[in-house]
Amino acid sequence: MKYYLAVDIGASSGRHLIGWNEGGKILTKEVYRFPNGVKESGGHLTWDIESLVSNVKRGIDEALKFSPDIVSLSIDTWGVDYVLMKGDSEVLPCYAYRDLRTIEPIEEVHKLIPFEELYAKTGIQLQTFNTIYQLYADKLAGRLEGVTDFLLMPEYLLYKLCGVKSHEYTNATTGGMVNAKTRQFDPEIISRLGLPSHLFKFLQDPGTKLGTYKGIQCVLCATHDTASAVEGIPMEGSEIYISSGTWSLLGVKMPHAITSINSLSSNFTNEGGVGYIRYLRNIMGMWLVNRLRDELCPGKDFGEIVKEAEADSFDETIDANDNEFLSPSSMKDAFDSNLSHKPANIAGYFRCAYRSLANTYRDTVNELENITGRKYHSIYIVGGGAKNSYLNRLTEIATGKKVIALPIEATALGNLKIQMEAVK
């Protein structure tokens, strides 16, 4: 039996899953889990990369206890964030995407390259945290002086294991600097922003073999977690998917990028997939309810929260994708400021959040069908949100589509699938 290891790290936790092929089906076993989260340092939101590296290595040790003969491993994480390097030394702090340091640099970037032109080249939606704005913020702050590399988060972690610096295609596309046609960093964008050209290496495809760690072959999966999740969905035909986690990524597979004016104005994005484009929109997702729980009822079981929300009668909704909800000091206050009446109890806030998400899914599906000129019949939901039967039902009612909820580790399955194809 050949065993493979998927390390899947999200904004709130990471997990190590052993995978193997049995009877044509990928089976998994979780062998390690650890918490993750942004830290506040010097008035900024940052990642504790030392803790991340330590936990990745500790999890591998636990995996080796399960099977000393692991064939390969790979790591996927969220997109856009990176670690600056001077040779083999990190430039700290490592900023998190929810930090607000990019707000002013965005305007400066668009003076040099209007967003309409950026979108025509990359097809990537405007998000305040895109890598392009983070790097320009670093340039303005003088942080790029003497820097030899920037490694997106999963590639950085793989480097710390095997010593090979790499740049994977699906993850790089999330940052707004990859040309949608050439599938490589766009040299004109880099030149016009005055960024050091040596930082932007050749992009490698999922399945590329790197070095080894403790005798295990390190491989590039689709290192952006949503790209791996889409690979892990057992989807019949080309239908809508929602990868439901901290963010909800709602989209479809397309053969080519769509960079029309309608697509731009609807803020859809064209991220790289494994042989296709992931045409999607980022929606705020479970971040809303996670932050509400942290603030209003810490530690309360989500099953109980959902049950109470379903029984409540509060019927106002908010725009779940408003930037006010991106990183508020108080999620409750953010809700209050966007409602004409405050909920009478805690359950009302959660009911509002779930109904608002379903409405956002509906509106996004309508725009998606209008832009692609196609009607879709089903929505496949994977990730943590797939377990929420209340939200799934609200989504089915709001969109009029058949919801197929798959409470599976889709991201890990996609990660493992790519490894198994690369390392026979």
Number of strands: 18
Indicate the structural class. alpha+beta
Write down the Rg: 21 Å
For the record, what CATH class of the largest domain applies? Answer: Alpha Beta
By DSSP (H or I, 4+ residues per run), the number of helices equals 15
Question: Order of strands across the widest beta sheet?
Answer: 3-2-1-6-12-11
**DSSP strand (E) fraction?**
15-25%
Largest sheet: 6 strands, mixed
Q: Outline the low-pLDDT stretches.
A: none
What's the structural domain tally?
2
Describe this entry's structure for a reader.
By secondary structure, the protein is α+β, with helices and mostly antiparallel strands. It folds into 2 domains: 3-226 and 412-422, Nucleotidyltransferase, domain 5; 235-407, 2-Layer Sandwich (Nucleotidyltransferase, domain 5). 37% of the residues lie in helices and 23% in strands. The protein has 15 helices and 18 strands. The protein has helices at 49-66, 103-112, 115-122, 131-140, 153-162, 169-173, 187-193, 225-231, 261-265, 287-296, 302-311, 331-337, 346-372, 389-399, 410-422, and strands spanning 3-9, 13-22, 25-35, 39-41, 44-47, 70-76, 82-86, 89-91, 94-95, 149-152, 209-213, 216-219, 240-244, 248-254, 269-272, 277-283, 378-382, 402-406. The strands form 4 sheets. It has a 6-stranded mixed beta sheet with strand order 3-2-1-6-12-11. Strand 1 (3-9) and strand 2 (13-22) form a beta hairpin. Helix 10 (287-296) runs antiparallel to helix 13 and helix 11 (302-311) crosses helix 13 (346-372).
